[in-house]
Design brief:
By secondary structure, the chain is an alpha+beta fold. Strands 14, 15, 18, 19, 20, 21 and 22 form a seven-stranded mixed β-sheet that branches. Strand 21 and strand 22 form a beta hairpin. The radius of gyration is 27 Å and the shape is elongated. The two termini are 32 Å apart. The relative contact order is 0.10. The N terminus is likely disordered.
Length: 476
C-alpha cells in the first residue's frame, strides 16, 4: 500500500468580494509569528502536492471522489503520478469537493490549484463559479490535445460510468494491456487495485485508459458495470468461456512523436543536471569465483546477487567515506552518516533507483528480502520518496544482460556510481607463470572530481576487490 500524503491547501484570498466575511459564518484563525490574523475559511484551494524533492509537476491519474462528494479529514481524494510513483493523496479538512479544476490525465505544476474545497453545501455553487472564472493550470494529456478547444476554466467532466460500461466484455478480454509486457504483469493505479478487490473485478480483463495503458479507477468501475468479475463460483471455466489470448504487440507506432512521461521528464532533467558536474572514470577487474560459489550456496535462502554486490560495496565504503560523500553547492561536501546503496532498476516508461538503507549494517538475508520488496513496489509505482531519493552511492548492473563493460552517468547530488558488468570465464596468467581460468567482472566507477580523486577510487576498488574475492564477511 502506498503511503497517504496530505493535500496542500491554502485559503482563498480574503480580498475577493465573493469571499468577504459573513456575519453568520465562523472565521478561522491563522497564526504567523506573534501576529494573529482572522481569515475567512469557507473555500479552499487544493494544491498539487510535492511528492518528492525533484517533482516539479504532477499528473492526475484518477479522482477518488467526484464533485459534490462530502470529504472527511484524512480521506483519500485523488491519485497523483509524481516523477517516480503513483500516490494516494488525502485532504487536511472536512468539506465538499466543490470543483475539479484539473481532470484525469491533466498535468499541473507543484503548488498550483487542482480543485476547490467548500466548507458547506451552500458554498459549492460559489466555488464552482470561481473555478469557471480562474485560468486552468493543467496541461492536457496527448489524447486531450487533439480535442476541440474548450472555454478556459471549464474542464469537461469525466464520462459517467454507465457510458463507459458499453464496452463489451469480449472486447476487454481480447485486448492486450499495452503497459503489461504482453499480459505478464498488470499495471494499475493503487486505488484501482483497491477498488478492483472491493468490486470483485479481474484486472486481467480490463483495458486501461490511463497513461501508457495504466488501469485507473474509472476503468474498474466500467468493468464492474459491464460484468467483468472474478468467477469465484466456477474456478475451472470451460475452454469456450476462457478469455481469448492475443499475441502481444509492441504497441509502438513508427514515425510518431511521443511526449515524455512524468518519470521520463524527471530522468531527462537529472541527466542534463549531471552535465554540470566534473566527473572522471576508473575501471577495475575483479575475480568472482569465490563470490559465485557463495551465491550458489546461499541462493536457496533467498539471497540475491544484487544484495551481495550492495553489501560488498557498503563494506568497502565504510573504509573509504570520501567515496560515500556528496557535493551539492560546489563549495563544500558532506561525509554522509549513512551508507545507502541505490540500485538502478528499469521499469515501464523510465528508470528508478530503490535504496537499500544502511546496507553496511543489515545482514545479507534481510537485505535480500528488502531488495525484493523494493523491486515489487518500484514496478507497481508505489515507492515512497525516502525509498528512492536517499541514496549516497549508486550501483548500475547490466551484467544480467551479458554486458561486459559500460559507463554510468553520475546522479546529481551523489559522489559516485559504479557500473557492473557480467562475470565471465577468462583466461589469465597465474603468479607462477601458468595459464589458468577465472571468472572475472569489469566495474567502472564514475565520480565527482570536485570531491573524489583518482587515488581515492583506486583505494576503494582495491578494498572492494578484496571483499568480493574473499567474501566471508558478507554473511555476517
Amino acid at each position: 500500500m502506498s503511503q497517504l500524503l496530505h493535500l496542500g491547501t491554502s485559503f482563498v484570498p480574503s480580498s475577493s468580494t465573493a469571499l468577504r466575511r459573513n456575519p453568520t459564518s465562523s472565521p478561522a484563525i491563522h497564526i504567523s509569528g506573534n501576529k494573529r490574523t482572522t481569515i475567512q475559511a469557507k473555500i479552499r484551494e487544493i494544491f498539487m502536492p510535492a511528492l518528492s524533492s525533484t517533482m516539479t509537476e504532477g499528473k492526475i491519474v484518477s479522482w477518488v471522489k467526484s464533485e459534490g462528494d462530502k470529504l472527511s479529514k484524512g480521506e483519500s481524494v485523488v491519485v497523483v503520478e509524481s516523477d517516480k510513483a503513483d500516490m494516494d493523496v488525502e485532504t487536511f479538512y472536512d468539506g465538499y469537493l466543490a470543483a475539479i479544476m484539473v481532470e484525469e490525465g491533466g498535468v499541473a505544476a507543484v503548488g498550483s490549484a487542482i480543485a476547490l474545497l467548500a466548507e458547506t453545501e451552500d458554498e459549492i455553487a460559489e466555488a464552482r463559479s470561481k473555478a469557471n472564472t480562474s485560468p486552468s493550470s493543467s496541461s492536457p494529456s496527448p489524447a486531450a490535445a487533439a480535442a476541440p478547444e474548450k472555454a478556459v476554466g471549464a474542464p469537461e467532466k469525466a464520462a459517467p460510468v454507465k457510458a463507459a460500461a458499453t464496452v463489451t466484455v469480449a472486447k476487454m478480454a481480447s485486448s492486450a494491456h499495452p503497459a503489461s509486457e504482453g499480459g505478464k504483469r498488470i499495471v494499475a493505479s493503487p486505488y484501482a487495485k483497491k477498488l478492483a478487490k472491493e468490486l470483485n473485478v479481474d484486472l486481467g480483463n480490463v483495458i486501461g485508459s490511463g497513461p501508457m495503458g495504466r488501469i485507473v479507477a474509472k476503468d474498474v468501475e466500467a468493468a464492474a458495470a459491464a460484468g467483468v468479475s472474478v468467477a469465484a463460483e466456477d474456478p475451472k471455466p470451460s475452454p469456450s468461456s476462457a478469455p481469448v489470448k492475443v499475441p502481444a504487440s509492441t504497441g509502438i507506432e513508427l514515425g510518431t512523436v511521443v511526449p515524455f512521461t512524468t518519470m521520463q521528464g524527471a530522468v531527462s532533467r537529472n541527466m542534463v543536471d549531471s552535465l554540470t558536474v566534473p566527473t572522471f572514470r576508473v575501471g577495475y577487474t575483479i575475480s568472482t569465483d569465490a563470490l559465485d560459489a557463495l551465491y550458489k550456496k546461499i541462493k536457496s535462502k533467498g539471497v540475491t546477487m544484487t544484495a551481495l554486490l550492495a553489501k560488498a560495496t557498503a563494506l568497502a565504503l565504510v573504509k573509504h567515506p570520501v567515496v560515500n560523500s556528496s557535493c551539492r553547492d560546489g563549495k563544500s561536501f558532506t561525509y554522509n552518516s549513512s551508507i545507502n546503496i541505490a540500485v538502478a532498476v528499469a521499469i515501464d516508461g523510465g528508470l528508478i533507483t530503490p535504496v537499500l538503507q544502511d546496507a553496511d549494517k543489515v545482514d545479507i538475508y534481510s537485505l535480500s528480502r528488502k531488495w525484493k520488496e523494493l523491486v515489487d513496489k518500484a514496478r507497481a509505482k508505489q515507492l515512497q520518496p525516502h525509498e528512492y531519493n536517499t541514496g549516497t552511492f549508486t550501483l548500475s548492473n547490466l551484467g544480467m544482460f551479458g554486458v561486459d563493460r559500460f559507463d554510468a552517468i553520475l546522479p546529481p547530488g551523489t559522489g559516485a556510481i559504479m557500473a557492473v558488468g557480467a562475470s565471465e570465464p577468462t583466461v589469465v596468467a597465474t603468479k607462477d607463470g601458468r595459464i589458468g581460468m577465472k571468472n572475472q567482472m569489469q566495474v567502472n566507477v564514475t565520480a565527482d572530481h570536485r570531491v573524489i580523486y583518482g587515488a581515492d577510487l583506486a583505494s576503494f576498488l582495491q578494498t572492494l576487490a578484496k571483499i568480493i574475492e574473499d567474501p566471508k564477511d558478507l554473511t555476517f
